[in-house]
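yo, ABC-2 type transport system ATP-binding protein is done. seq:
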Amino acid sequence: MLEVRNLRKTFGDNVALDDVSLTVEPGRMFGFVGANGAGKTTTMRIAMGVLESDAGDVRWDGASLTKSRRADFGYMPEERGLYPKMKIAPQVAYFGELHGLTPAAAKRAAGEWLDRLGLGDRGDDFVQDLSLGNQQRVQLAVSLVHDPKMLILDEPFSGLDPLAVDTMAGVLADRSAAGVPVIFSSHQLDLVERLCDTVGIISKGKMVAAGTVTELRRSAGRRLRVNVADATPGWEQTLPGPATSCGDGEWLVDSADDQGVLAAAMAAGRVVRFGYDEPSLADIFREASA
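structure:
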């Protein structure tokens, strides 16, 4: 289990992280979301030992992380760290050897992961000759080649087409199902919502919300969505709670009195739609980051 506890990091007068904490349990996938510059990458770099925090610590299975323990992690930085003029298969194998695999084991694992990621026939190509999406697949193979005990991935889905997204999502789901804790950042909130067991929302260096998507939705509250055709002008003033127009006769109403909302809508015109609206992760993110 990975525990990030009370991290603080400043760069001059800029506070990049302010008391950031999160936990990623075995076999769980944690989605880390936030605007550019919110602190996601800084947190991940501290977890991997690339940066040092000013305060707080990162623990693995209850003990402080050391360099040797981090060697068991798979890390995929947002900036690609590949050698462009080196062939793909030897490069993935090389990174496997850096993590302690024998040359034979590294070569075998590199071939298996390139096959799994749809690049089995490109092993003799140079990285610079690949599309950006395929370079991203190679970067993932590098992070997986040594069978890591933890995966930390910074924007792994960036630049991928839908088929490549599905391939990468399947790999991460398989690793998670095998008991590996996975943390990844992404701006694709629908993907985070679909894949992740838990989500953390960071804004301006502070963790402003964390939990399962269900828990975050519950804390955000449900609103009634009602659409009334040919409604009497100003009818929303009769609602037992504040209402926000969505256009085309549709309104979102903050009220626990669902029967009162329905009665007002029926009195105003023909009710086309009526029901509770569950906030999406994008809605929760906007609210939490405001």
